[in-house]
Amino acid sequence: MIPFAFLQPTSVDDALAAWTPGAAWLGGGTNLVDLMKTGGGQPSLLIDLSRLPGLRDIEMSDDGGARVGALVSNADLADHPAFAARFPMVAEALLAGASGQIRNAATVAGNILQYPRDAFFKHLGEDPLDGDTTSLSILGANGPVAVHPSDFCVPLAALDAVVEVQGPNGPRDIALADLLAPTADTRTALAPGELVLALRLPAEGATFAGHARYLKVRDRTSFAFALTSAAAALRFDGPRIAEARLALGAVAPTPWRVAEAEALMAGQAPDADLFERAAQTALSGAVAIGDTGWKIELARRTAIRALTLAAAHTPARLPALPGSPFAAQAKDHAHA
Amino acid sequence: MSKIHVTTTVNGDEVEFLADPRETLLDCLRDKLGMTGSKEGCGTGDCGACSVTLDGTLVCSCLVLGVEADGKQVGTIEGVAEGGVLHPLQKKFIEHAALQCGFCTPGILVAAKALLEQNPNPTETEVRYWLAGNLCRCTGYDKIVRAVMDAAADLRGEAA
Ligand SMILES: Cc1cc2nc3c(=O)[nH]c(=O)nc-3n(C[C@H](O)[C@H](O)[C@H](O)COP(=O)(O)OP(=O)(O)OC[C@H]3O[C@@H](n4cnc5c(N)ncnc54)[C@H](O)[C@@H]3O)c2cc1C
Ligand code: FES
Ligand code: FES
Questions:
Q1: Is B132 in contact with A50 (Cβ distance < 8 A)?
Q2: What is the ipTM of this complex?
Q3: Out of A1, A100, A329, whose CB is closest to B133?
Q4: Domains of chain A by residue range
């Protein structure tokens, strides 16, 4: 690591005032410190956010939504019973990410803004087609571009999450999908010096609570980034789907919401044929880069499976990953 | 870059050190405080050999900067035994031969202790899930899981 200065401001105003070009915000550090060690990130100033007040609250709003402070840890959000009851697939995605140690340290804002895995190697001039191609995008990319690695952001995209930021030009709200839409020059739509203060989940998302799942496929169930994943949520009107939400993870440089597939399912009966067609539509633009052809088929099957699980209903206990996690903590997570 | 004066509490004792911001908490524990129980297996959050608690929460000390620990409570493997008396987890690790080279052991003990404080009666699945962030290249995990289950029973006052 190259030398850097370190500050621990105790107010948001002081933090914003401390920012200079070359500075970086430090959340849990599980992504940034890791990146700095490989030489992939070289901030001249680290501004530690951990002393900022008021950014660790989880507020369940009266209208049925939620507002989550930027510094809430991934573990604390997943383990919040009222939050998990409204947004079960978000909790499920959080619990499917990383390890206990990392979830404890990782913050909500840091998870959303984490660097993709290729940032760790790009500066070394490595050819992305050499070696491990599992993290290459098959959708929404021209050429070899790494996927957005977050599990958490996949259901967030499906539920129209909004991010509250504050910067040199004052506060603004930005849709998560817009925040994470990378361009040729920028990784995210966060302007220099802007700080994420909170994440909001609109109340409408909670109307899917009874039929919402996050399914993650990985090399090792215990602990690995997703090979493919899907967040699927359905709201029923009698036997038919009133509205569907579907987002795919680990397939594109951003969480990949598929509006066409969602539209196709509205008003239909939930059967295997419908989910096949929805998944086909979701993957219709997919392009294999290098040897990633397997990923298209895996993503298609993951989407079908997630939709099928969601149609069955959200299980009464979270998380419900096959053969893994925490029933004891899940005792509090009864919902739906 | 100038060093920063850090005051923190490690296993209940107040300690002070000067840290370059680039030094991780793991570096500070091992190189400044001589507490070499926590190990560096990977330095990237993958192996858990560096597991410590920070204000009671289990984290990887290789991804925490030493300067971040200012004013916090750090718990390490050195604080698990009380005086000369081994913690039930340590006793059960010996009994079950749950270690071979021992490199992963301090991290696993710290992680398992954190689990049992939060969940005194875990299922085997829960133990495996909780310890997923701790890699062991020797034992095959089975003996570790059995030792943790047995220690949990012991701590609950049940005969195994
Ligand atoms: C071993 C390992 C395994 C992992 N496995 C998974 C996995 O399976 N699934 C998964 O989804 N993730 C996984 N991750 C990634 C993990 O989720 C992220 O590292 C974590 O969420 C980042 O959060 P943080 O608070 O530590 O971020 P930091 O490292 O502190 O920051 C990350 C980025 O966000 C910026 N940032 C942080 N806070 C703010 C803010 N308030 N406003 C503006 N910018 C901010 C930082 O400047 C930096 O650019 C893994 C990580 C590791 C190390
Ligand atoms: S040394 Fe910290 S996780 Fe491996
Ligand atoms: S005993 Fe050797 S790594 Fe676990």
A1: no
A2: 0.97
A3: A100
A4: 1-53, 54-134+144-205, 209-312
